[in-house]
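Section 5: illustrative case.
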């Protein structure tokens, strides 16, 4: 039953080899070449919210679902080799103690779902695990904790989350924690002394420090405090779309100088400020549309009414970040399954990743540079964080 998949996988391996041996020839011999996204040595997405769908039931990673953006068939179609599944709990509805319990339950849900598909998926907690998964033809699932509220201001909880396999901590979600400021609140609060201890502990553990969602001041404080590269797991470019969740050119440059990677978020309202205005106008004028039907009905009605940004708008963010931060500083951070399907035309789900590669190729990016953006930069930054931890480990 898996013959097609196996054939596909061996085709991929051959394509990757030929790409390594002679990238120019591989890119000019079109008949032997799958879509350029599939040719990459790795396709790694640093931020998918699919666990929210798993938690609420009725979502099967093994099926090609009508709803959502990420499942095994669509990851295979997109040539995906690793995905970071977000461990996300509300920072508003829960106390921090409740958030700790919820985080544990989400990790349980993810692990149980991954265990159902041993041929296709494998939990991964290191760059070595990600490489091994690819060698075995499986997709690596890595855990990232989206919000410092889930440690309840406890380094013991943080260390335990690390032992459970989580490999990045987004310092805040949309609310300040007692020790770090969020972009979702006024005041531009920075990192406290305890916040600096959290960063130091993340460095010591080899867990990536993620500055998506943090306030500008916390961004700068974190960059100063961290002894290892820092990532933004799902943030776009503020020079193109002025939103506090996005990064200024100065931030992109500083992150890059430290070996970090900004993983571009595909959410329409972070890509295109005109879309964001249309969306909020539609929200206020249509408070009830699609609510009764539930599911994706409201999002579908909204997109039908206001349209989507083009794929080119998304590509602008990738190209700008690469121009400002350099080719080693850009990666994929889709936010799939976290944005109600509000995604650009042609990027409706994870199977469409090859379109990013093709689009960048059309803009003059070479094969090796596209490979970096699709996954190698993320892998390298993760490896650098691991190495820094090994070098400085206190035991
Ligand atoms: Zn987020």
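Designed sequence:
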């Amino acid at each position: 039953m898996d013959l097609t998949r196996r054939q596909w996988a061996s085709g991929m391996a051959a394509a990757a080899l030929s790409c390594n041996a002679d990238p120019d020839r591989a890119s000019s011999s079109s008949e032997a070449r799958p879509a350029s996204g599939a040719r990459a040595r790795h396709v790694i997405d640093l931020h998918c919210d699919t666990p929210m769908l798993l938690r609420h039931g009725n979502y099967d990673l093994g099926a090609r679902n009508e709803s959502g953006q990420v499942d095994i068939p669509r990851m295979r179609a997109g040539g995906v080799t690793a995905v970071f599944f977000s461990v996300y709990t509300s920072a508003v509805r829960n106390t921090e103690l409740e958030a700790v319990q919820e985080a544990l339950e989400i990790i349980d849900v993810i692990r149980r779902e991954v265990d159902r598909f041993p041929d296709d998926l494998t939990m991964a907690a290191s760059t070595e695990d990600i490489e091994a998964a690819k060698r075995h033809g499986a997709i690596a699932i890595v855990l990232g904790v989206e919000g410092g509220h889930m440690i309840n201001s406890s380094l013991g909880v943080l260390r335990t989350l690390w032992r459970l396999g989580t490999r990045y901590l987004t310092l805040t979600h949309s609310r300040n924690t007692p020790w770090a400021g969020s972009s979702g609140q006024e005041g531009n609060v920075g990192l406290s002394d305890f916040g600096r201890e959290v960063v130091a502990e993340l460095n010591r553990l080899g867990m990536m420090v993620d500055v998506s969602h943090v306030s500008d001041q916390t961004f700068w404080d974190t960059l100063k405090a961290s002894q290892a590269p820092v990532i933004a797991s799902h943030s776009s470019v503020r020079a193109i779309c002025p939103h506090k969740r996005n990064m200024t050119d100065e931030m992109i440059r500083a992150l890059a100088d430290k070996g970090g990677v900004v993983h571009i978020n595909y959410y329409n309202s972070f890509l295109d400020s005109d879309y964001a205005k249309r969306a909020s106008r539609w929200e206020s004028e249509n408070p009830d549309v699609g609510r009764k039907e539930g599911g994706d009905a409201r999002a579908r009605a909204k997109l039908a009414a206001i349209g989507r940004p083009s794929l080119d708008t998304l590509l602008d963010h990738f190209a700008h970040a690469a121009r400002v931060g350099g080719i080693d500083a850009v990666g994929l951070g889709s936010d799939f399954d976290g944005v109600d399907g509000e995604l650009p035309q042609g990027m409706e789900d994870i199977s469409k990743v090859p379109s990013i590669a093709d689009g960048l190729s059309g803009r003059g990016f070479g094969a090796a540079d596209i490979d970096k953006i699709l996954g190698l930069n993320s892998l390298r930054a993760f490896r650098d964080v691991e190495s820094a931890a090994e070098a400085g480990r206190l035991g």
